[in-house]
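pipeline: protein-struct stage 2 | run 1193 | HTH CENPB-type domain-containing protein
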Amino acid sequence: MLDRLRLGELFASISCSSNVNESTVRSIKKSEDKIRSSVASTSLSAKVVRDPAIEKIKVASSLLIEDRNQKRVPLSGPMVREKAKCLYAHSKEPYGSCSGKDGIFQASGGWFNKFKVKQSLHNIKMVGEAASANTAAAERCPEEFANLLVERGYKPEQEFNTDETALF
């Protein structure tokens, strides 16, 4: 705004194009010296230097999540965070431990939340087998199963789940 005013542009024109009141533009003009000295004293060339290893971890974590999703393998936040810590430790030292006690990168919950936002990740209700499950049958199952146990004379101690167990 100040540069445009120096070039002779009108207050009304600047206020209209900037979508601010004309009085605001006039106030800025009155404070021109303070504003320009403040800007001159601020280093605009200062850049945040990020650890290249952390940038690589973000890419690797994204690839990990994509790979697990394609294979329909459930993946939790703590699992991603732990893997990120291991990746960081291995990027710093060839045989680094996954403890993350170096004080630099902890893969904290805050880091993971920001990572999720930047990667547009969110919770999905159904993963893996759940996406193709028969929900109507699943709702009837507990009652039917209880009736079956009573009919056949089984005790509650004899009931067990083999859904995630490799029995041959």
